[in-house]
Amino acid sequence: MASASTFCPNQTLNSPGNCFLYQWKKTRSSRTEVVGSSYQAFDVVIIGAGIIGLTIARQFLIGSNLSVAVVDKAVPCSGATGAGQGYLWMVHKTPGSETWELAMRSHTLWEMLAESVRDQGLNPLAELGWRKTGSLLVSRTHAESDILKKRVTQLSEAGLEAEYLSRDDLRKEEPALSVGGDSGAAFVPSDSQLDAQRTVAFIEKANRQFSSKGRYAEFYHDPVKCIVRSGSSGEVGAVQTFMNTLHSRKAVIFATGCWTGSLMHDLVRSSEIELDVPVRPRKGHLLVLENFNSLKLNHGLMEAGYVNHQTATLRPSISELEPSDEGRNLSVSMTATMDAAGNLVLGSSREFAGFNTEVDDSIIKHIWQRAGEFFPKLSELPLSDISNCKKVRIGLRPYMPDGKPVIGAVPGLSNLFLAAGHEGGGLSMALGTAEMVVDMVLGQPRKVDNAPFAVQGRCC
Ligand SMILES: Cc1cc2nc3c(=O)[nH]c(=O)nc-3n(C[C@H](O)[C@H](O)[C@H](O)COP(=O)(O)OP(=O)(O)OC[C@H]3O[C@@H](n4cnc5c(N)ncnc54)[C@H](O)[C@@H]3O)c2cc1C
User: Fold this and answer.
1) 56, 433 in Cβ contact below 8 A?
2) Distances (CA, A) of 69 to 38, 72, 248
3) What is the pLDDT of residue 181?
4) Same domain assignment for residues 329 and 394
5) Which of 46, 56, 89, 262 fits a disulfide with 135 by CB distance 3.0 to 4.6 angstroms?
6) Inter-helix orientation angle 100-119/426-442, to 10°
7) Per-residue pLDDT tens for 35-51?
8) Ligand 1 mean position, distance from CA 82 (Å)
9) Quick check: 27 and 33 in contact, CB under 8 A?
């Protein structure tokens, strides 16, 4: 009986004949029968058009001659990426931690991308929402300040320009901030931020330039419903979506954010593959104040407690929240940035609420109150007074219980790769992740050790 790969040996991209009704006969090893589906072939099929999927596509396009398809059940920015605050900071990352090298490499690659935009005669602010504001991790207690002083030493030893700002220096840098007796800040002047929507649009546009060469195609509003294994190797030969069957010659990559756990569970359910990807959604609210002139920031800010907030289940002043919130492990930690359009963006909450993306007004109130503790001007303003300029952004961060993304091949399915679970750092770690995935697929030497991110031992 023929194996899937022998059905269309001369398939070429974008040729009129490559889209046809096709019957895929069941082989001994393939578990799914694909009948009556539009069929196209690519070297690499990427599922998920968030920042991770799109930057992986970009890296294949600029770093190899492979053809790439990107599939999404909706559109780019419909997942966590569209909600992201946009900071690419190192100030809250810990030298020597398992994600440090990946974060540093990504930091360098983002800088290079912004530079290449400049080299093309374009403005990184306009194209990417790129702003090198520097970042401040702000302490308010003596104990926090001591921790930040040590952090500054660590960051400096790791090669980053970092300094500890005393209360008086902090006041000069950020006059709108309430600075008490024990306040201080870790300052990383080279930290930058971007606008996720602008950056995604820029990357998509650049990727699409490869369409005319037959190397790139997008399949949006087309959810993946199964994977098709082919041949005796058990490799994934194709991905079946609701509208298409996308054959993959080299690799299938799942960059499906917080959906990766449930999706992979469904896809391998009836196979012998044992895979349990523990990625789950961690909901976050952001409050955006458009054309808000009452407060101006010179830098991006984050409260020192954010470092724990990202990984742990720190509780806020729970009395202000509904009793049922306790089960959600709700936490709110102050982050404040000005985006490329001059809007004030205040964050952020974390909670486990399944795939629910509805606005919770009590959380918005809590974000506002928390910001008011840092910025006295905000505490003077009732939330109801700013309803005309108030927007709320909600996203589901892809949470991994051990705090690291999962990046690598699935054992037993050698051409199936996962790249998910970046939680609150997917924008900042995207370019390093993309480089790592492409190097793995192409068998190239890695710039960053991928062992901490392996699928084996964490998902199977
Ligand atoms: C409030 C908030 C603030 C944040 N701020 C920052 C920040 O400042 N800096 C930072 O680095 N990170 C930040 N993050 C985290 C960052 O946004 C995420 O880590 C990142 O966007 C994850 O990207 P992704 O591509 O993995 O996932 P997503 O953007 O969620 O993309 C996954 C895609 O997979 C698609 N998909 C799912 N299932 C299927 C299917 N069956 N078929 C086809 N497609 C499918 C979805 O439609 C989606 O488009 C923030 C997140 C939130 C929520």
Assistant:
1) yes
2) 14, 10, 9
3) 87
4) yes
5) 89
6) 90
7) 445 789 999 999 999 99
8) 7
9) no
| 214-235 residues labelled b (16+ CB within 10 A) or e (exposed) | ebbbbbeebebebbbbbbeebb
Which CATH number fits the domain that encloses residue 212?
3.50.50.60
Same domain, 294 and 270: no
Cα distance between residue 330 and residue 114, in whole Å: 35
Token pair for residue 371? 């910001």
Amino acid at 415: N
In a domain, 87, yes or no: no
pTM summary value: 0.91
- For residue 371, the surrounding DSSP H or E stretch is helix 361-374
CA of 405 to the centre of ligand 1 (A): 12
Statement to judge: residues 414 and 353 lie in one domain? no
Query: Which of 59, 427, 433, 453 maximizes ligand 1 atoms within 8 Å of its Cβ, making it the mutation to test the pocket?
Result: 427
> Confidence band (pLDDT; 50, 70, 90) for 232?
low
Per residue in 288-304, pLDDT (tens digit) is: 999 888 899 999 999 99
Quote the CA–CA distance of 171 and 188 in Å, as a whole number.
16
Integer Cα distance of 261 and 267 in angstroms: 10
Ligand 1 binding residues, C-beta < 6 A: 47-53, 71-74, 78-81, 83-87, 223-224, 255-259, 263, 284, 286, 347-348, 395, 397-398, 420, 422-428
Domain co-membership, 286 together with 272: no
25 within domain boundaries: yes
Tokens coding 205: 């546009």
| 288 and 387 belong to one structural domain | yes
Determine if the peptide bond prior to 348 is cis (ω within 30°).
Answer: yes
Phi and psi (nearest 5°) for 399? -90, 130
Q: Which residues lie across from 266 on neighbouring strands?
A: none
Domain of 386 in residue numbering reads as 132-190+281-398
* Mean pLDDT confidence for 61-69: 98
Instruction: Mark which of 355, 381, 398 sits at the end of a domain.
Output: 398
Atom number of ligand 1 nearest to Cα 86: 8
